[in-house]
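User: Can you predict the 3D structure for this chain?
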Amino acid sequence: MHTQLPQINAKQLKNKTVLLRLDLNLVCREGQVIDQTRWDVVVPTVRMIMSAQPKKVLILSHFGRPSGNDPTYSTRILLPTIQKAFPDAVHSAQDGFDVDATLVLLENVRFDQREYSNDITLSRGLLKNIDCLVYDAFSVGHRSHASVTGVVAHAPEVQFGDHFIQEKKNIDLGMNGQTPTVAIVGGAKVSTKLSLIESLLDSADKVIVGGGIANTFLAAKGIYMGSSLIESDSITIASAMLKRMGNKIILPIDGVTEHEQQVTFAKDTLKDSDKIVDVGPSSIEIFLQWIQTANTIIWNGPLGFFEKKPFDKGSLIIAQAIAKADAYTIVGGGDSVSLINELSLMNDFSYVSTSGGAFLEYVAHGSLKVLDTWSLHHETH
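Assistant: Here is the predicted structure, written as structure tokens:
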């Protein structure tokens, strides 16, 4: 646990030069922004800083995964979106100090390869002439990069933006909420969710496992899964989890193959060519019963090959059930969020996290690298 994070203090920012680290990795197509959610959630932070009458605000962000200086990944593409809310904002490919404007969008920090190695010279360069760092990029808080942990370690002063504070607060509420707590973990790969499942087994009352992840757990129980997606390297770990916490893990008892055949795992033997791509109706019924008992529900990852109908059925039914549940409901993970967005259920969840990998990291470990760095360098001062 961390002590209370320092929030934006407008009085301290007046006439100061502020470095504002955001995640403006917006969804673009052919040079046009098509989803500006990540910008929308931090606009209040920018407004709060600007209302303090700072001398200058330099917005720092990554954008995509460019290899070197690639103009198709220039943050200049994002400027029109920012200017809708702040018409006076300008772009600078240089350090921003020579620009006669208060709000300056810096170039993509990932153009500099020192970003990935958390190079101290880049962090210090970014902080040159900076009075205060405002960090409001929860979604990259799990990365040891120069513009994340590097600037937090070396900034003269650090304040955290409102979106970061809200993200942390709401995930904490989910993890320490009213019991019983039911977690639902889906998705394709066990390896990306092992630490998450481990953590949830310690904190939740039941962990429902679906999607491709469930196939590996079922294989660990000795059930032949045909040509279903399985991670052989993770079977031993899944088996150990089942031995240690099998009473908490709820696995599917039936599934649907890619040929839309329903299979019951206890009695039907899958053919070599059979591939399970969704949970079956009996499994859905069991999952719904557990969801109805919960006071806190944490959901991450779809329960089947939801991109292709009708194999989205399990995920859709579960999403709608969680949305209607009389419980504190928190959802994270890109696929789950896009699914509830499609269903227009965004407002029916207590909290929707847009932080992807950082959400998983925080739930699994109760912290992020950026928070650990802040604690180490600033918390005790």
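The chain has a mean pLDDT of 91. DSSP finds 15 helices and 17 strands in the chain.
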